[in-house]
Design goal:
With 176 residues, the chain is an alpha/beta fold. It has one domain: HUPs (Rossmann fold), CATH 3.40.50. 35% of the residues lie in helices and 18% in strands. The chain is built from 7 helices and 6 strands, in the order βαβαβααβαββαα. Strand 4, helix 5 and strand 5 form a beta-alpha-beta unit.
C-alpha cells in the first residue's frame, strides 16, 4: 500500500487544499490520502478555530470520498506534534510500501528546521504544492496548483468563493 499524508492547520480548509488533495489523488500512485489536521503547528503560537472544529469541517468536506481519510492523530496528542512523529505513527500502523508527504511550497524555506528533517527525508517522498514566489527543487515532486488563496487571508477576509460550498456558511459564521 502507498499512502500520502497531508498535514496542516486547515484554519480554515479552503479550495486550495481541496485542489491539492484532488491533484494528489490523480497524480500520485497512492491507495489512500490521509489528512492530518494539527492540534497546533510547531511553528505557530495559536489557532483560531479549535482542533475539533477544524477536524469536523474536514470530515464533512471529504465524507463521500473513500480514498481520503481524516485522522485525528495529531489532535489527540493535545500538543504540537512534529511531522516525523506522524509519519512514524502511520509507518508503524499501516506498514506502507511508500509514503508521500504533501507540503505547500511556502514550507520549503523552513523545511530544514523541521524536527529530524534528515530522518524524515529518508522516510518520505516530498510532494510540493506550488505557490507563487517559491521554486520547488527537482528532488521533490511538484504539484501544479493555481489557487491564489491562503488560510491566513481567509481568516482576515472570509470569501465564500474560496471555501468548500457545503461548509462555507459554518466557516464564515465562525470567523465573524
Amino acid at each position: 500500500m502507498n499512502i500520502a499524508i497531508f498535514g496542516g492547520s486547515f484554519d480554515p480548509i479552503h479550495i486550495g487544499h481541496i485542489e491539492i488533495i484532488n491533484h494528489s489523488l490523480d497524480q500520485l500512485d497512492i491507495d489512500r490520502l490521509i489528512i492530518v489536521p494539527t492540534f497546533l503547528s510547531p511553528f505557530k503560537k495559536k489557532f483560531l478555530a479549535s482542533p475539533s472544529v477544524r477536524f469536523s469541517w474536514i470530515k464533512e468536506v471529504f465524507k463521500n470520498n473513500p480514498s481520503v481519510e481524516v485522522s485525528d492523530f495529531e489532535i489527540a496528542q493535545n500538543i504540537p506534534t512534529a511531522t516525523i512523529k506522524t509519519v512514524e505513527y502511520f509507518e508503524k500502523s499501516l506498514n506502507p510500501k511508500k509514503i508521500y508527504l504533501i507540503i505547500g511550497a511556502d514550507n520549503l524555506p523552513s523545511l530544514h528546521l523541521w524536527q529530524d528533517y534528515n530522518k524524515l527525508e529518508q522516510k518520505v517522498k516530498f510532494v510540493v504544492a506550488s505557490r507563487d514566489g517559491f521554486t520547488t527543487p527537482h528532488r521533490y515532486i511538484k504539484l501544479g496548483i493555481n489557487v491564489d488563496i491562503s488560510s491566513s487571508k481567509l481568516r482576515k477576509e472570509t470569501d465564500k468563493n474560496f471555501l468548500p460550498y457545503n461548509i462555507a456558511k459554518n466557516i464564515i459564521k465562525h470567523y465573524q
